[in-house]
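ok, trying the design again with the full structure, not the truncated one.
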């Protein structure tokens, strides 16, 4: 169905008013994807995964520019001579943010729209709409407004809108990045049905490998400017620098072959669970320990905690900080950094928050979790004064953000929203960093140093909109983290980030917490919560339904438990490092 023959992609760079040298994205891509397989594209942030996907439907080079070397053929059509519209009946492309692709108001209209554009007969259109609604489990929401759907439902509608047009190939870029664990499994199960029941060929790029690796038939590795052939998933995970916790546990324990799913790992882990349960003096591990399936580097060190503003490291090889212990807000001599009391917020006619009382003290890292639409983003927006409460009070660093000027609020609280482009307005990465240094009154180069720490190697002259999604997230994070506000508020900060970039972000968050800052992270990334959170707060329908230490909240939740906790249940271990440390103590 899809054939890459020695494919390379490069872009011209600007050098003053003229053309600069070409920037090579990747080269040597040679592989053939057969019909009816799910192929997973794996690689670091900014490695070229999205570019590879866009080669399949001709967006590269017809829309995004650049130079395409070699040959890509899809169902026998050469993408050099066939533009995206010429391939629309064969390839359906689903972008990372489904809402940005919607052009109608309701589910049924959105699914029909693509067929109308292709001139499909009315009778055939009606039949395809019904089939698509059934296949993707959307029949009960067919008349619903798109904006009223959950994130998982919106993603399935986006898939249905391209599927109904009748393509034999679906290409998806980070389809679960903004979804809670249950919604993500729902979407992936739908894709699995398309592959197994209908013979659709699916090519997907995804950073959260723990969600999708066990669904993949083949894996393509992208990195360091090269592209592998089609690999068996277990074979690919042996050599990949990017791997989920289930693979990390298998590697650490020398399991062969490597398990790809929690189910496979649980079967292998019977003796391990017994050994851990019987280990003399083996303590239940605390939250915030490093690294699950993330590769670690450096050695642990204790960092000073007496600074009111942390000095963020500029050396990308600096040692990883020891995760901070939880500091209860009521026990801190400074009092809570973030505090809400019976906070209620209405958005339109909907009650988004219902009597939320939350206190976050210096040194705490709180993971704010819950399904899509639970109120996480609304709560974070309220903490910086972007939404007005209908009832209750808010204090951040002793300031009421709803009554203060924005210039005052940013000194106390910094928010990185889900859409990083909301913070980015300059014409280059260097200009964004310089503007942040000026706005926050930090030494020149501070923001650039933080960016290099999170995502090294981003060209300073590159325009922010030319960056990958993960690189844009990294730039927005750097803009906020460089000022080191008292309260660091992050809304889905790991969207588009690979495991290595996530590890570097976690190092910074630990240093901020060690220096007495309060960190609140709204996230669907259960592995992130397992590694860095001291507390987990779960929201549902705008109310707090759970608030406690990370091990107790995460390990007992079927929806939010990390992979290691699922493998070792009922033992409350959250990360691979926890397990390795416990085995070391027992030996």
């Amino acid at each position: 169905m899809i054939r890459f023959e020695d494919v390379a992609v490069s872009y011209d760079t600007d050098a003053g008013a003229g053309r600069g040298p070409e920037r090579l994205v990747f080269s040597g891509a040679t592989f053939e994807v057969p019909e009816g397989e799910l192929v997973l594209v794996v690689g670091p942030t900014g490695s070229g995964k999205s570019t590879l996907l866009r080669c399949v439907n001709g967006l590269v080079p017809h829309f995004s520019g650049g130079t395409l070397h070699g040959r890509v053929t899809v169902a026998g059509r050469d993408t050099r001579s066939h533009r995206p519209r010429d391939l629309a009946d064969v390839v359906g492309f689903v972008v990372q943010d489904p809402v940005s692709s919607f052009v109608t108001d309701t589910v049924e209209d959105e699914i029909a729209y693509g067929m109308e554009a292709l001139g499909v007969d009315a009778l055939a259109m009606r039949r395809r709409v019904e089939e698509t609604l059934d296949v993707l489990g959307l029949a009960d929401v067919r008349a619903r407004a798109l904006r009223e759907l959950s994130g998982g439902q919106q993603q399935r509608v986006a898939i249905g809108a391209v599927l109904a047009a009748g393509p034999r190939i679906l290409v998806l870029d980070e389809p679960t990045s903004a979804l809670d664990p249950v919604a993500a499994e729902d979407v992936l199960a739908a894709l699995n049905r398309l592959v197994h029941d209908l013979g659709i060929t699916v090519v997907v790029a995804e950073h959260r490998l723990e969600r999708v690796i066990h669904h993949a038939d083949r894996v393509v590795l992208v990195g360091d400017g090269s592209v592998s052939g089609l690999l068996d998933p277990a074979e690919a995970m042996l050599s990949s620098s990017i791997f989920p916790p289930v693979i990390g546990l298998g590697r650490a324990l020398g399991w062969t072959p490597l398990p790809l799913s929690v189910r496979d790992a649980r079967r292998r882990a019977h003796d391990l669970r017994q050994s851990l349960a019987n280990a003399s003096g083996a303590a239940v591990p605390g939250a915030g320990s490093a690294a699950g399936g993330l590769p670690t580097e450096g050695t642990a060190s204790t960092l000073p905690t007496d600074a009111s503003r942390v000095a963020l490291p500029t050396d990308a090889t600096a040692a990883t900080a020891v995760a901070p212990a939880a500091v209860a807000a009521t026990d801190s001599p400074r009092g809570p950094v973030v505090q809400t009391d019976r906070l209620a917020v209405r958005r339109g006619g909907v009650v988004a928050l219902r009597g939320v009382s939350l206190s976050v003290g210096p040194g705490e890292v709180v993971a704010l979790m819950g399904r899509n639409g639970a109120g996480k983003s609304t709560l974070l927006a309220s903490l910086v004064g972007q939404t007005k409460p209908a009832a209750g009070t808010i204090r951040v660093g002793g300031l009421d953000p709803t009554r203060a000027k924005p210039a005052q609020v940013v000194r106390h609280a910094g928010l990185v929203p889900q859409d990083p482009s909301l913070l980015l307005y300059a014409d280059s990465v260097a200009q964004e960093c310089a503007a942040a240094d000026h706005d926050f009154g930090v030494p020149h180069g501070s923001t650039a140093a933080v960016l290099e720490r999170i995502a090294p190697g981003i060209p300073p002259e590159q325009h922010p909109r030319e960056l990958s999604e993960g690189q844009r997230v990294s730039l927005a994070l750097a803009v906020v983290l460089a000022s080191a506000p008292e309260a660091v508020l992050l809304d889905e900060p790991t969207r588009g980030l690979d495991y290595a970039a996530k590890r570097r972000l976690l190092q910074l968050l630990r240093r901020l917490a060690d220096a007495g800052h309060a960190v609140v992270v709204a996230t669907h990334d259960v592995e992130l919560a397992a590694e860095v959170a001291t507390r987990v707060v779960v929201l549902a329908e705008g109310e707090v339904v759970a608030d406690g230490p990370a091990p107790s909240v995460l390990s007992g939740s079927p929806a939010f438990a990390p992979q290691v906790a699922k493998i070792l249940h009922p033992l409350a271990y959250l990360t691979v490092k926890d397990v390795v440390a416990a085995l070391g103590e027992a030996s």
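Keeping the full-length input from now on. The CA atoms of residues 295 and 336 lie 34 Å apart.
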